[in-house]
Design brief:
8 helices; about 280 residues; alpha/beta; about 15% strand; 7 strands
Length: about 280
């Protein structure tokens, strides 16, 4: 039975940027049923640029697994060739996907007037163009796979960034792309108001990801040797809620948005940013 309006059935899901950080926590959330409480996860496709990280995550998930097929696609979404490789991997499996989480992200820090053209293009590709193309593929498969008129549930979650609202001088292309990702989701929701299909955006604040901590280290001289836990403690007093955004904060929100109950929300963005904005 497909993932239906009852919130039950079998689900095929995709996560990009899956090998570490938030993507890894989302993958674990699917396997341990934090994200899908009633439906059955039939397959989980993990996508990231580093094959070693994907292999390690797949092995970890398979030790916890209760029957879900786990697939990996190693592809660099910061270039056309990498996006084509990702598409080829997805198209190879003739199934309908029900959940797509566009989590992959990349920021290169430099003063904008000194930034190289290739660095600007890579950030636009991975943070905006790749999610747009993956969403289009998801929609094509989802709408083609309806046995009854739009009886299944389809959920797209875009992971943006607080930088979309608070751009810093050294990450302008990243901030612009993440803002564009939000506007893209809103446009799709308005122009494809199909029953069962939703697309929403989550806007996390500072998180204990490699990318987030790299940005903090650039703002905190002498912090290169500090652990993630130490940096989180040092940053917390400067945030309105006195804590950084946790992985659980975002995972729990994703779980609601992909559920039957989350179906009333479409084209929205949700800030999970420890009180920022």
């Amino acid at each position: 039975m497909p993932y239906s309006s009852s919130g039950k059935g079998c689900v095929n899901a995709i996560i990009t940027g899956a090998s570490r950080g938030l993507g890894r926590e989302l993958a674990l959330g699917f396997i341990n049923k934090t994200l899908l409480k009633e439906a059955t996860l039939s397959s989980l496709t993990l996508m990231a640029r580093e094959p070693e990280g994907l292999r390690a995550l797949k092995a970890e998930l398979e030790t916890l697994n209760t029957g879900t097929e786990i697939f990996t696609i190693a592809a660099d979404l910061s270039c056309t060739a990498g996006i084509d490789k990702a598409m080829t991997g997805l198209k190879h499996r003739p199934i309908v996907y029900h959940v797509l989480i566009n989590n992959a992200g990349s920021a290169k820090s430099a003063s904008y007037e000194k930034m190289q053209d290739c660095d600007i293009e890579e950030q636009i590709y991975v943070n905006l163009i790749a999610p747009m193309q993956l969403t289009r593929f998801f929609m094509e498969r989802f709408f083609e796979g309806q046995d009854a008129p739009l009886a299944s549930l389809g959920r797209v979650i875009q992971i943006s960034s607080i930088s979309a609202f608070m751009p810093h001088a050294t990450i302008i292309p990243y901030a612009i792309a993440k803002r564009g990702l939000m506007e893209f989701a809103t446009a799709i929701a308005k122009t494809f108001p199909a029953k069962g299909f939703t697309i929403n955006t989550i806007v996390p604040g500072l998180m204990a990801t490699d990318m987030g901590l790299k940005a903090v280290r650039q703002m905190m001289p002498g912090s290169d040797a500090l652990s993630k836990e130490t940096i989180a403690v040092k940053m917390a007093p400067y945030l309105p809620e006195k804590k950084i955004t946790s992985f659980d904060d975002v995972v729990n929100l994703v779980g609601f948005l992909i559920s039957k109950e989350g179906g009333a929300l479409n084209g929205e963005f949700f800030r999970v940013a420890s009180g920022l904005l």
